[in-house]
Amino acid sequence: MNRKQQTPQAWIRPEQPDTALERVREKVRTCIQCGTCTGSCPNAFAMDATPRKLWRLVLMGQSREIFESRTFALCSDCYCCTLRCPRGLALTDAMADLKQIAAAGKHGGDAACTAFYSAFLQSARRYGRVQETRLMARYLAVMTPRRPLMPFRFSGLGMQMIKKGKISLRRPPAGRSLKGIFARIESMKDGQ
Amino acid sequence: MKYLYYPGCSLESTAREYDMATRAMMHALSVELIEIPGWTCCGATAAKAVDRRLALAMPAVSLALAETVDSAADILVPCSACYLNLKQVYQIAAADPRTLAEINEILAAESLHYSGKVRPRHILDILAKDIGPTGILQQITHSLSGLRVAPYYGCQCLRPYRVFDDPEAPTSMDALLAAAGANLHPWSMAARCCSASHMTTNPDVSKELVFRILKSARGADAIATVCPMCQMNLEGHQGWISSCYGEDVRIPVYYLPQLLGLAMGIPARDLGLNAKSARTAALSD
């Protein structure tokens, strides 16, 4: 928990509103800061800013603090907060918006998540389907220099899977290629 | 009965036994499954963490492919994450024509189109509502009596779309497992999050969530799941988690169709269960 010393004005005067953040702000506009989201979040114990605080930061336009936090990266899409929010706000979707903004601007977020998602989508784009064994191999190749012990935790699981005959290195019958879909989306990027 | 079938990527690799058990069980129930030809990855949680359009277009591809086969059929989806992604596009098609047009503009790149007719449904929805405990009961040859099972639902088959069960206190597995002769383990962790892909990216957060679930399952002989991610998180790291907390929380974690299939007399190997393992022997006694 690093509570940065803020001048009172910094809380009163929102920073330059970020147009991307506007989409998120619209989603949480009627938040009443009741804290049901924080109380429902299975990952709140590991977050530096709780979900309730994050929504307040969004309303105040505090981009820097939002994207320095690990909060949105730690959302595991369980939808408990969405289900229980007394204002009916789409909070899980708002977390996804923040992940997308972080991914697009290459700022904030979580290095491991970013590496994992990008390995995942590369695999899907290329083969139409994700082959999990290759995905893990690629992810570990990216992460091991940063977290040298990581492969050891997964090697046990890998051995279990090989024993159970669950892992095959054969490429599965491929689905349709998704390259055309990815390319079309890439070409639409300008008018978000 | 006839359904289109969307296995999803996991069921081709780490969750192959889920695919085997689903097909074997449906075959035994005389339910026809037609695999969607050329189906593609739904994007899981990766697409929605990166790009809004990608998160909509990826599942839409398979929905559009499904419509080329039979637009009046329902799609049976065993994986909860796949189900949610497909369902989200189905809901958009029903209520948000502008976004549907945007999706179809992307699909046009592959000469595909989704009209919103074909409907994705979770396997548990189909088991609980279409086949039902009575349908299972008629097929039981090897009762699971004496086996105490903790039904685990996870998140995305229940939330945010309230379709076939109570998203806070689900019960749809109870009658199915009871029909197979199993006893139910009463617990409050049935709809708690297993941490999804955090097991890969933030294991220290993940182990906390999984530990709580496994600890609460103590007293049961097995956990029943309906999602490949949940199954892998709950079963794949038990040794590591037990040693982290200095408590033995090991327990077998099966897919619901494996347990129901055994009770229906389907051979263990056809359900992706290792017939030689002591565990399976104990189950089929």
Tally of separate helices of chain B = 13
Poorly predicted residue ranges of chain B: none
CATH level-1 class of the largest domain in chain B: Alpha Beta
Biggest interface pair, residues each?
A-B, 58 and 62 residues
Organism (chain B): Desulfosalsimonas propionicica
GO molecular function (chain B): CoB--CoM heterodisulfide reductase activity
EC number (chain B): 1.8.98.1
Enzyme class (chain B): oxidoreductase
Task: Summarize the structure in words.
The complex is a heterodimer of chains A (192) and B (285). Chain A has 2 domains: 19-105, Alpha-helical ferredoxin (Fumarate Reductase Iron-sulfur Protein, Chain B, domain 2), CATH 1.10.1060; 111-168 and 176-190, no CATH class. Chain A has helices at residues 8-12, 19-28, 36-40, 51-59, 63-68, 80-84, 91-105, 111-127, 132-143, 150-163, 179-188. Chain A is mostly helical and 192 residues long. The model of chain A is unreliable at 1-17 (pLDDT under 50). Chain A is globular and about 50 Å long. By secondary structure, chain B is an alpha/beta fold. Chain B has 2 domains: 2-122, Glutathione S-transferase Yfyf (Class Pi), Chain A, domain 2 (Up-down Bundle); 143-273, 3-Layer(aba) Sandwich (Rossmann fold), CATH 3.40.50.11810. Helices cover 48% and strands 10% of the residues of chain B. A 4-stranded parallel sheet of chain B has the order 2-1-3-4, with helices on both faces. Chain B has a 4-stranded parallel sheet with strand order 6-5-7-8, with helices on both faces. In chain B, helix 1 (16-28) links the parallel strand 1 and strand 2. The two termini of chain B are 31 Å apart. The mean pLDDT of chain B is 96. Chains A and B meet through helix 6, helix 7, helix 8, helix 9 and helix 10 of A and helix 2, helix 3, helix 5, helix 8 and helix 9 of B.
